[in-house]
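Hi everyone,

Forwarding the result from last night's run.
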Amino acid sequence: MSNKFKKLLEKIAREKAPGPSPSFSVVHVLHAIELIAEGEIGRGKLAEKLRVGKGVARTIISRLKEAGLIATSKAGCTLTNYGLMNWNQYTSIFIRKVEIGTNKLTLAKFNFAILAKNRGDKVKSGIEQRDAALMSGAKGATTVLYKDGNLVIPSVSNNAVRDFPETAKQIIELLQPEDNDVIVIGSADNLKGAEYGALAAAWTLISNSN
């Protein structure tokens, strides 16, 4: 994914509009693009799926349109060719996402996992991913690396297949990681919160990539 696209989405989330400042983050912008990529969608349905007010949805749509990422019509929003190109680049990195049940590594009742291809070198201690998830409103995030056929959880276990066999099996079967892939699991008190936590945690894995 291009650094230009990353900076563009962060700019969209950061800009201040006249009047009261809408409450949304880059995670909401990213999820909006994802929902639009799935098929034409109107403002009301987009607001409902994002769990934001219609005013916030209106602002997100306006900024995405101004950036050239989406087009709007009476029927709803669609991705432009430019938007689709950038979204395809994003999904070439974050290729798999799935709701995951509670296990010995999860932090709350609802959990959502995202697999990032070949991002192992972007992980330090896992704290950056945890903090990003917390800032999104989630309970936290667990970062898991796949190396040499094994799962590594920074600061927790160098061999999760040995230390957490049932959990490791669940993660490997659901996410199907390959060497140097990273799995981030967002945890929250509701599924949307867990998904946003995972998205926020995953976003840190492209913070220094081109």
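The domain at 93-206 is CATH 3.30.1360.30 (Gyrase A; domain 2).

Cheers,
N.
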